[in-house]
Amino acid sequence: MTSIGQIIDENSSRTLAPAAVASQVALMSVISVAAVITFNVLRPKNKAIYEPKVKYHVGDKKPPPISDSLFGWLPPLYRTTEPELLEKFGLDAVTFLRFTRMMRSIFSTVAFICCAILLPIDAVYNLKHVPSSGRNILSMLTIRDVEGSYLFAHVAITYMVSVVVMFFVWRHWRVMLHLRQQWFRSPEYMESFYARTLAIMHVPKKYQSDAGIRAIFDSVQVPYPTTSVHIGRKVGRLPELIDYHNDIVRQLEQVLVTYLKDGKIAKERPTIRIGGFLGMGGVKKDAIDFYTAKLQRVNKAIEDYRQEIDTRQAENYGFASMAAVPYAHTVANMLRKKHPKGTDVTLAPNPKDIIWANMNKSPADLFQKKVVGFLLLVLVCFFNTIPLFIISILANLSSISAYVGFLGAWSTASPGSFAFVSGVLPPGISALFGIALPLVMRYLSRFQGALTHSRLDRAVVARYFAFLVISQLVIFTLIGVGFIAAEQVVSEIGEHVSFADIINSLHSLPATINSTYINQSSYWLTFFPLRGFLAVFDLAQIVNLLWIFIKKKIFGRTPRDIREWTQPAEFEYAIYYSILLFMGTVALVFAPLAPLVALAGAVVFWASSWVYKYQLMFVFVTKVESGGRLWNMIVNRLLVSVVLMQLLMVLTIGLQYGFKSFLWLTTVPPILFIVAFKVWIDKTFYHKFLYYIPSREELEHAQIHSSRADASGNRIERRFGHPALHMELFTPMLHANMMPLLGEVYKGPIGSDKAKLGEYGGKKLSAQVIDCGIKFASVEQRDLEYDPALYKRDRGEVDWDARSMASAAIFGHRPSESASAYHQKANFYATGGESGRSSPAPMNYSRTNTQTEIELSRLGQSADNLPLLHDRGYDYPMSRQTPPPPVPNPPRFASPSPPYIPGGGVHLSPAEDFREAPLHRPYTPSREGLNYATDPPQYNLAGRGARHPV
Questions:
Q1: What is the DSSP letter of 414?
Q2: How far apart are CA 417 and CA 432, in angstroms?
Q3: Nearest to residue 593, comparing CAs of 949, 118, 937?
Q4: Residue 714: pLDDT band with limits 50, 70, 90
Q5: Which residues contact 550 (CB under 8 A, 6 or more apart)?
Q6: Burial zone of 47 (CB within 10 Å; 0-12 exposed, 13-18 middle, 19+ buried)
Q7: Percent of the chain scoring above 90 in pLDDT
Q8: Which helix (H) or strand (E) is 916 found in, with range?
Q9: Alpha carbon of 276 to those of 273, 670, 890: distances in Å?
Q10: Which of 404, 593, 391 has the alpha carbon at shortest distance from 486?
Q11: Measured over all CA atoms, what is the biggest interatomic distance in the chain, rounded to whole angstroms?
Q12: Which is it for strands 907-909 and 914-916: parallel, antiparallel or unpaired?
């Protein structure tokens, strides 16, 4: 009778049988082909899903023409060149596609080298030296049973792989630097206001004023003056209240649409359970009445809060604009390590990229949040390793079946289904549990104080990639070693070996580590087909189609849902980068050990590169353009993957020959090569990648913006003021065919009115007003989809003043009637004293005796059209310029402020009669009146630049 030890020995030679790997590859190949066929059939009739960017694009950046024929989507993919991609889709998209091209080039080369050299060597060795009972078709093509001098062929391959990676990284780094500098010089970037603006963080209390911001720059004697400055203003809980209000509006809209589906009232009114757990306990309430009352209360709370908020209180951050983009980059480069007055001065991000809730956090708050966030992240990662035990059990079914009765019976009775399950389930469960983790990491990174969405992406890439490597490579391997140890103990117990002998035999455990992680290469051969299928599945967007169908047929879609679903979705760069990097790490680590893994990786990278190119050209958009900022960190992690490959080869040689032989030292030099290469890359490319470094000629011909032009329009306040100060509240919207039923839903008088909707650029829509004063806007069928003209306005980088005029022209109403964000905020700044104005001067004061009258209309007094902050007057203090006579009733107008006047080296523009910023203005110690190297002058916060009367 065969002993249990013999059974285990026979099964421990593999983790997944070749039949299991073949089942996974065949299944994923078949359903991938089916997904591609589905995509080809559905694409022509579902352009809103598969080609939304054809309709929604910014300016003339329309995707190339695409045919409706079965394979008409392929020609644009191989005909569209990188310059055209850069012009139409931005540098972030080009960076991602260049990364996929680099990865497919690397792994095509690596797979060719490894397969051409190592597969024959390993196969010949196994045929000569390993009995047929101890090998299978997969183990013959790995390093597992190879010994002696044959091992050094694998060591030589690690040298070659390292050279291949360094060559392609250098080649693509050089191109990326050129693209980045080209992006810096593009008209879109050069004309963006944020590109010539600096952000000042952690401003000390005594410098928290506009004058203090100027003093900070004067203290370090920067060569170029600021044209305007703005200290952040406290908004309190207003952003939370606005978000809460908008969430309630969404919930009320969904409840009403479900109740009035297809223009008919449902038999029963919708209910909601307050309290309880999992539908048990709590109190049932009418959902419509509940959300309506809730919306009424939050409207009142926001109205009261607007009247109480005091935006004259400064925050610990501010912004300063420079006269030209090269000036801003030069100053940011100079101050990146100086921390003037304890502040951090950096290039300002795009305002749409800023996470405003984290801007005002103190260093103590950030430290506390980082510690708590780190502990929570460790806890989440710990619980996410639990599925690895399930995956390991499934991946080791053939070994476990030796001592689990029903598994042994199953494998004997139906070896085909046993191989299918053991090959398909492990990678499937791994992918399933990996869906929510990136979202949790994004939330935790935001909680820890990330200031921008771009930085959030970098944090997610770093943490998610680290988790994948540690859990699915390191811990997964250790779990496999645990299985081998358990098998060894069980085998010896079955043979009635004494406990002391069992303990003594564990000294051979390190020798089993080598075969353990090599055996797991068969698992990764099932992982890559799954990743290839998921890439193709993304192309077919079947989940998206199913969700829209369910939403439409069962719950009903609100007008807001339809508007948001018709515009292109945002591409999740962080998640896709992390997954691709992890795939690259696995393929690199196993390339010299099991070359078929590198081949599988090459195939998946080729498929992914074409799928993602289509999606970035026709489906997805970049949330906020960062200019390829992720490139450096993904290259760093690719180089780390090469080091991991070398470390695993060090372990392999050390375990084979013993670490006392020092033969393992032959695997160390490539690690040193990678470290030296990284240092050289940083010195050669990284600094130039971060900043726009202009030539002397570019400095001389730079487009100069005057202080007066920046200050007169309050541009920096409008662009970098807190969004809550100009964010519009949602107005509940319903389909037009549901509006006649509103009187039956709400018992009571229903009035008629007009509602201006920010979502429609201030366009007036018919509305009904219920008894409690809440308006419901009626949306016709023709207005459900997002307007392409509004999409261009919202996605473009046009300044907000031009954006307001554009919306007025689109919808044919006067600017004075517009409820746009610009007018709301301009109204606030014109009447709020120090709350954002560049000058304390009233409207009738002008240095040039000319004035631009911008009338700010008083908005309606309904709950939806109230200005975000109530009107406040201001008292005009003495100015450092000649003060005008006091004005008893200051008019509601914004006024241009006196420009910042540098001390010397300035150029007077005779055409405009104001001072422009100089091309270069070095400070001298002898300058008087502008040296605030110690403390700033004491200014009255209510009036910028105004000294206290003596």
A1: -
A2: 21
A3: 118
A4: confident
A5: none
A6: middle
A7: 27
A8: strand 914-916
A9: 7, 61, 56
A10: 404
A11: 111
A12: antiparallel
- pLDDT one-digit tens code per residue, 186-244: 888 998 999 999 999 999 999 999 899 999 998 888 888 899 999 988 888 889 999 99
- Candidates 799, 848, 927, 915; CA nearest to 323 is 915
Q: What single string gives the DSSP state of each residue in 445-505?
A: HHHTT--BHHHHHHHHHHHHHHHHIIIIIIIHHHHHHHHHHHHHHHHHHHTT--HHHHHHH
Q: Can you tell me the distance from the alpha carbon of 575 to that of 856, in angstroms, rounded to the nearest whole number?
A: 45
- Mean pLDDT, range 655-680, rounded to an integer: 86
Dihedral angle, C-alpha 540, 544, 548, 550, nearest 10 °: 100
* CA 52, 58, 61, 62 torsion-angle sign: positive
Cα dihedral 807, 810, 815, 817 sign: negative
Residue 884 has pLDDT above 60, yes or no: no
In this structure, the number of other CB atoms found within 10 A of the CB of residue 800 comes to 21
CB contact at 8 A, 624 and 92: no
Q: Who contacts 49 (Cβ-Cβ below 8 Å, separation ≥6)?
A: 42, 541, 544, 545, 548
**What is d(CA 266, CA 140) in angstroms, rounded to the nearest whole number?**
67
Top mean pLDDT of 12-16, 264-268, 346-350, 383-387 is at: 346-350
Predicted confidence band of residue 5 (pLDDT cuts 50, 70, 90): very low
Structure tokens at 164: 């291949």
β-sheet bridge partners, residue 569: 620
Report d(CA 736, CA 182) in Å as an integer: 49
Contacts of 581 (CB under 8 A, 6+ apart): 461, 465, 634, 637, 638, 641
Query: Are the CB atoms for 710 and 227 separated by under 8 Å?
Result: yes
* Residue located via tokens 């397969």: 115
* Whole-number Å distance between alpha carbons of 129 and 722: 72
Long-range contacts from 280-289, C-beta under 8 angstroms, 24+ separation: 287/255, 288/252, 288/255, 288/256, 288/259, 288/745, 288/746
Which of 149, 126, 196 has the alpha carbon at shortest distance from 666? Answer: 149
Rounded to whole angstroms, how far apart are CA atoms 121 and 305? 76
The fraction of the chain above a pLDDT of 70, given in percent, is: 71
Closest CA to 98 of 642, 605, 693, 686: 605
Long-range contact list for 681-684, CB < 8 A, 24+ apart? 681/169, 681/170, 681/173, 681/635
> CA dihedral in degrees (161, 167, 170, 176; nearest 10)?
-90
Give mean pLDDT, residues 679-695: 91
Q: Which two tokens stand for residue 278?
A: 């999992």
89-121 pLDDT, tens digit each: 999 999 999 999 999 999 999 999 999 999 999
**Sheet containing 226-233: order of strands:** 226-233, 314-322, 197-201, 344-347
- How many CB atoms are closer than 10 A to CB 706? 18
DSSP code of 100? H
User: pLDDT at position 844, please?
Assistant: 36
Q: What are the beta bridge partners of residue 734? A: 778
Among 16-25, 54-63, 223-232, 724-733, name the most confident range: 223-232
* In the predicted structure, residue 943 carries a pLDDT above the cut 70: no
The number of residues in the chain equals 950
Mean of per-residue pLDDT scores for the chain: 76
Q: What is the chain's percent helix, strand, coil content, to nearest 5?
A: 60, 10, 30
CA distance 201 to 359: 8
Kind and range of the H or E run holding 406: helix 405-413
